[in-house]
Amino acid sequence: MKDKPQSDETPVPSLKMPPAIVSKIENRVKWACIWSLLALGLITWALIQPKPLPVIVAMSVGQLIGTLSLLLFLGSVALDVRARYRLTKRTEPRKSNPGAE
Fold this sequence. Notes:
By secondary structure, this protein is mainly α. The protein contains two helices and no strands.
């Protein structure tokens, strides 16, 4: 029978994000997926029908929509990281400074 290794760290309680933040993150990711699929459709149209108009639309409008979807996704990742950081900061036990007494 193996003994569990002793750890100096106390276990962190499960982090439960507020439903409003979770909903905002899910909404942003959903819209990022929709916009990226639209951009992919425009680029595919330019590959299937290689005429000047579809190629120009894919290279300008498709690029703009794809960049928008990337920014939405990165914004949702940043929001998630920020929310988790605030939750861990709130749940961490405060360390006292023994030398300050």
